[in-house]
Specification:
The complex is a heterodimer of chains A (about 250) and B (about 475). Chain A has about 250 residues and is of the alpha/beta class. Helix content of chain A is about 40%, strand content about 30%. In chain A, strand 11 and strand 12 form a beta hairpin. The mean pLDDT of chain A is about 95. By secondary structure, chain B is of the alpha/beta class. Chain B contains 14 helices and 18 strands. In chain B, about 50% of the residues are buried. Helices cover about 30% and strands about 30% of the residues of chain B. Classes of the chains: A alpha/beta (about 250), B alpha/beta (about 475). Chains A and B meet through helix 2, strand 7 and helix 3 of A and helix 11 and helix 12 of B.
Amino acid sequence: MLEIKNLHVAVDGKEILKGIDLTVGAGEVHAIMGPNGSGKSTLSYVLAGRDGYEVTGGSVTYKGRDLLAMNIDERASAGVFLAFQYPIEIPGVTTMTFLKAAVNAQRKARGQDELDAPRFLKLVREKSKPLNVADDMLKRALNVGFSGGEKKRVEILQMSLLEPSLAVLDETDSGLDIDALKVVAQGVNSLRSPDRAMIVITHYQRLLDFIVPDTVHVLSKGRIVRSGGKELAGELERTGYAEFAA
Amino acid sequence: MAAIRETVETVDQIGGEKCKYGFSTDIESERAPIGLSEDTIRFISAKKNEPQWMLDWRLQAYRRWLQMEEPKWAKVSYPPIDFQNAYYYSAPKQNAKLASLDEVDPKLLETYKKLGIPLVEQQLLAGVAVDAVFDSVSVVTTFKSKLAEVGVIFCPFSEAVREHPELVKKYLGSVVPSSDNYYATLNSAVFSDGSFVYIPPGVRCPMELSTYFRINEKQTGQFERTLIIADKGAYVSYLEGCTAPQRDENQLHAAVVELVALDDAEIKYSTVQNWFPGDEDGKGGIYNFVTKRGDCRGARSKISWTQVETGSAVTWKYPSCILRGDDSRGEFYSIAISNHFQQVDSGTKMLHLGKNTSSRIISKGIAAGRSSNTYRGLVSVHKKAENVRNFTQCDSSLIGPRCSAHTVPYIEAKNPTAILEHEATTSNISEEQLFYCMQRGVPAEEAVALIVNGFCRDVLQQLPMEFAVEAQKLVGISLEGSVG
């Protein structure tokens, strides 16, 4: 699914990622943990194609294609999804309008017919229910005045509607209380499937109690310094990142 | 008048060269002589079979105009206009007709397609001769009889001069005097044609005026004159313009619109303006110098302006309300989009003369490319106007580093009971908003359209439904080429 080789990335001329190697297969869930400033968010933005993240070396292959050569929206339509740590507000655009624009843009890019309003409405209702996203939220402007929990639930709703092949979840647990975290984690777990890969980026082990990864990587100072099974997360919880930060 | 010739050439490239498509020689005789003089005005008036009083009114305006100077205070710049090197009258039938849509510039057709305009309308808009005009004639007839049933007069201005002289005499120039300003005075002297609407007391006009007629409107030319009167307790919603870019061979447009609302009457006036804005290098394009003013003459009357301005190279336009009647209300909702080298200086004036009058101004300016977008507004409270309320909100959004937005609000309160609120914001379409939309698969230009439509939502909601849908698409089309 995804193969990252010796990836170097600079922001404003400063090297943030210093040679990342990571292979994620279909159906796998990888967690990337690390202290603040280790390059976790940079990795997620580079995979999504955000401007300002300059790849200075290495390669990223996604489903056999050169991911770095693709536009942001091309990557999205090819199945790369990023759940944002801080979802962006878009005033005046209702959540429903935004969801429809996204779903239909991707369908169009893939040569499928666009969903009309009734079909789309039915789909959204079906996907919203398990995430506790009420009709009222869908009518409000996207993320404007949403609580932390509401924002994250709508992120997962988008993921559920867009059915990506590769989902990158950037600090999805930040700003959530335990109840909200459970709802979000359940949503994510229900989207685990043999043909979908996930990269779960988090600072804390807490999220990984609910979304149990196959593999855990520790990112520090722009490098993956350790990889292991899910038990590695528990170990980190006890020892902290001190030994990697030095 | 090099600039005008340039426009004609550019517009010709879009609409087809005129000699090729049947501009015949007898046209010359239908044209007024070049330049502006009393003879030109007599010629225009004679062509329209106008009564003496109308001619006198025009001549008076002309003599006044000779003593006036072009206003220079707006934040726009353009080469000097040579008024003596232009034609002021040409009969509508002289418009070049194309034989079929195959002869129309594919770029124009592409835009029509994006707007979802039906084929027959496309032909009419592009200036294709349509002889068997589907059943528009019967449609028009049906609606005309429906209007006649309730006593609504809706006709070309020149027809009103002949058929309803008492109404025209009473109201013409009563809101925008013929001496009002340089362009309004010019219009008063040489106006070509336009619409006349009269809604009798207590009548609610049964349809949005001009929705069903817009495709049948003859080209009313560069000096359009519109007069709408809502008598006591009447209501009318009037739509001007069209989302589709239209062929036009005149560079200077100086229209005048006058609205009169008597006691308890309401007029809702919506405009979508999408004239040729000039090309991507800023060449050509229409100068739109318009005077629009509504007079809330009666108590509890209401006038509401809604405009979506996306076209023209230079726009100079301030639809205003004179709130004369006690408890009257004025509204101004505006979206002004400028791209490439367009210059917009637009806004409104709310003149509070009556007691308990209120007004609301919502202005959304969007600048892209190298364009300049200015909101200029005046809220004025007369010393005898007690308990005036005004709320003003001016939001500007910038796309890219080379455009500019300006807000110039004037507020004059001469009565201490007035409560006036003004809010203004300027923002960029943020990189993170664009990134977010694109990460969900929405291509850059669609993302800009989505974000800008959200930004304009408060105003778009004021438009009549079917207009609103087209206007939303237009917002996207106007900003094409503004990112990436």
